Amino acid sequence: MSMGGASPELQELSQQLQELDAQQNALEDEVESLQDEQAEITDAVSALDSLETGSTVQVPVGGGAYVRATVDDIDEVIVDVGGGFAAEQKRDDATETLQAKRNTLSERIDEIEAEIDEVSAEIDEVEQRAQQVQQQSQQQAMQQLQQQQNDEQ
Q1: What angle do CA 62, 106, 42 make, to 5 degrees?
Q2: DSSP annotation of 48
Q3: What is the pLDDT along the chain (153 residues), one digit of tens a residue?
Q4: 3-class secondary structure, 63
Q5: Closest CA relative to residue 37, chosen from 112, 105, 110
Q6: Is residue 76 within 8 Å of 89, Cβ to Cβ?
Q7: Nearest 5°: phi and psi at 84?
Q8: What pTM, to 2 d.p., does this model score?
Q9: Domain boundaries, the chain
Q10: What gap in Å lies between CA 31 and CA 105, rounded to an integer?
């Protein structure tokens, strides 16, 4: 949309569209981040289900580096319980904790997707209003042009 000579209302609508678009992108990024976290939890649950005492695993030590380690006791698992805290739990309890976290993430994703739908509907409304304003502006310009031509005759 060209802003040269555009009405103040059209400029305001354009600004609203930019803000709504940025809001929608931020919400979509948040959903993607939560989905990544969900996938990590799913992987962790699968690992807990398949690992046995004595299994060899690769443990991240930071910076993209891993060391091989042997699982001494798969029956006790340390799980992030939120707020920067971790707790040692039995394997089944750890799995339940992780599944509860995954369910909470699913609920949050659903909430954000509903917000995205609301923002998208608002974008549609603003776009329609902008089209109406632009059409009205064009009609007024045409009427003024016709009036000038009639006055010249």
Answers
A1: 45
A2: H
A3: 444 456 889 899 999 999 999 999 999 999 999 999 999 999 999 999 999 999 999 999 999 999 999 999 889 999 998 899 999 999 999 999 999 999 999 999 999 999 999 999 999 999 999 999 989 888 888 888 888 888 777
A4: coil
A5: 105
A6: yes
A7: 80, 10
A8: 0.77
A9: 8-49+90-152
A10: 9
